[in-house]
Amino acid sequence: MTGLEELKGRRAIIGSGIAGLVTALELAPHPVAIITCAAPGKESSSIWAQGGIAAALGPDDSVDLHLADTLAAGAGLCDAPVAKELLAEAEQTIAALERFGVTFDRDAAGQYVFGLEAAHARRRILHAAKDGTGAKIIRALLNAAQNCSSIAFLTGVEARRLRVRNGAVSGVLLQQGSRFETLPTSRVVMATGGLGSLFDATTNPPGNFGQGVMMAARAGAELADMEFVQFHPTALDAPRTPLGLISEAVRGEGAILVDEQGRRFMADIPRAELAPRDVVARAIHAERAENRRVFLDARPALGDRFADRFPEIDKLCRSAGIDPARQPIPVRPAAHYYMGGIATDKTGRSSLAGLWAVGECAATGLRGANRLASNSLLEATVMARRAARDLAEHPIPPLADPADNPRPVASPDLTRVRPTVSNTLGVVRDGAGLTQAIQNLLPIAEGDGPGADPAIVALCIAVFAHLRKETRGGHMRTDYPGLSAEPSSRRLCLDDVLKLARTHDVQPLLQSA
Hints:
Distance between the termini: 44 Å
Oligomer: single chain
Structural class: alpha/beta
Strand content: 15-25%
CATH superfamily of the largest domain: FAD/NAD(P)-binding domain
Shape: globular
């Protein structure tokens, strides 16, 4: 692979979304290599982010109010001290993004314009280019990174495995076409984004099946809270893959949810359309389960102002033949974000020496059982800056040259995995479905075929979900509809997951399959 030798020993960042780019920029002038399969930023969820970035900067707002909303949405599983620390860094984080060239929307007086989203008690969502926030931020960060001499991009290359020696990271196994090589490094930052493409209906880029989680798990790192997948309530219900997103900000501006008869079915639910995402997603799921389509009606609240307030969403709707100023928008839940991931401390360090994780693939304790809307870009940026400081403050140990030659691994194929995930691990779950999921996924995960990598991530979700015998946040079980008395977060490594998948409560099914 061209240029690989000169990158040997650099800090390696896998992923080029907001978390990866900020980490690289904050590490300057320390040399880093950003590994990305597609063109930088192109296959990241960051570039599709419409909603914005939550920051308690308004005159009527505070960190404590933001924390209260975060904890309420997190349904008892947020790490409150960590969450408060992260949210308290909003002002300096926004300032850092502005130094890198991001311009947030301001009014005629030069003050920030704040939007409102579900489960927020205040208008605290900052946007850039209205509903094009993610793309605007990515463009600015890419421009800064491409003009930073300490950052090298390794493009068209896919990270497939972490190499481990003596209990610590020693390199990254890379694939380019049919060729495999190892980039020797003792410092890796995982910034690989989401896992939504495990599901039929998702708003995520097509290749996002949780690659970073898979690589970390295979290398022995602990995972946390993998059962909690967030389904965005209002993906555009139109024949396209992935599904387009109708931002929560549309509901923040007053749009309402109605059924085919125009009935506002969330009117009696606390906060109505601005309830936490899990509540809204389940309400829509229940309507669809009764064969009723659901629509987001922005006509009374926005009407002809829709295109000016949400230009990108207006284009999306019109591409599907819908004029949102005059027609209700058909919507449905879709896999959007996951609250679990690679367990980290508050500097982004994982349990595996030499591995940090930032952004959606990392579980920091901020999200709990249900991420508060628009906290994700804030968390990604805060944790990227923290990880960069931690990496810069600690010297790189002597590089251990990988002892063995790279062994090719099968390219991931979701064909065998996606039907099981979609049917059993969606908005509503039950014990029988989870057992069936484990039965289907375990033999694939334990193999070395093309379905193994995505099956490992899916199996982790299924086992974590099987263990959580309650309904909490993004995890709903019809056979355990209530909350448990003492909520707790859970951390497991892949060996634990595989052992649990073979325990007595699923073994009879496995034997009879």
